[in-house]
Design goal:
Elements (H helix, E strand, L loop, with lengths): L1 H12 L1 H11 L3 H18 L13 H29 L10 H24 L5 H5 L1 H10 L11 H26 L1
Helix pairs in contact: 1-2, 3-4, 3-5, 4-5, 4-8, 5-7, 7-8
């Protein structure tokens, strides 16, 4: 978990160097997900209960539904993002797409998205700056183009496709789940 958090915060602070360290570490995506990503999803869902202290209109059942929706949103988004990226970035990669790197990229970028959710849940007011933080994930993806072995002339296309796969999917799932619940 500590290596996961170290790499995660390094990707946030200095994405270029962060991707170099992620590449050097060469951790298996299964280790990354079970040792850091899934617990972070759980923490993001538990952060929904912080709303109880500043929003008196939410009851325990409402908070539990929100917490479940957050976990399901990110858990499903991880697998959907992997599938979408595997299908959509084939023409942007030198050679064959590396499934391990795709899963690692999805894991770390969704971890950043879940950190944004934790911050959102802990703030008693809705700030537009927080709503714009997912744009930072696109920057992290852009800096990860070398890690993913993206061809130079397709980096922009890669960033758009991967950002849609990694940022838009959990947001859409979150809106859908909140509408259902």
């Amino acid at each position: 978990m500590l290596h996961f958090l170290k790499h995660l915060f390094q990707l946030i602070i200095s994405p270029g160097r962060g991707w170099e360290d992620v590449s050097y570490a060469g951790n298996d995506p299964e280790t990354i997900t079970t040792g850091g990503l899934y617990p972070l999803f759980g923490l993001a869902s538990l952060s929904a209960f912080v709303r109880y202290f500043y929003d008196s209109t939410l009851g325990l059942i409402d908070l539990l539904q929100i917490a479940i929706a957050i976990f399901v949103q990110y858990f499903a988004a991880y697998f959907l993002a992997n599938v979408l990226m595997s299908l959509l970035i084939k023409k942007y990669v030198d050679g064959e797409p590396n499934e391990k790197k795709i899963a690692t990229t999805s894991a770390y970028c969704l971890a950043i998205m879940s950190l944004i959710t934790i911050v959102e849940n802990c703030l008693p007011v809705e700030l537009s700056v927080i709503q714009l933080l997912p744009v930072c994930v696109a920057f992290v993806l852009w800096k990860g183009a070398k890690y993913m072995a993206i061809k130079e002339n397709y980096i922009g296309h890669y960033v758009i496709v991967s950002a849609l796969s990694i940022v838009l999917v959990p947001m859409a799932l979150g809106y859908l789940l909140r509408a259902i619940l």
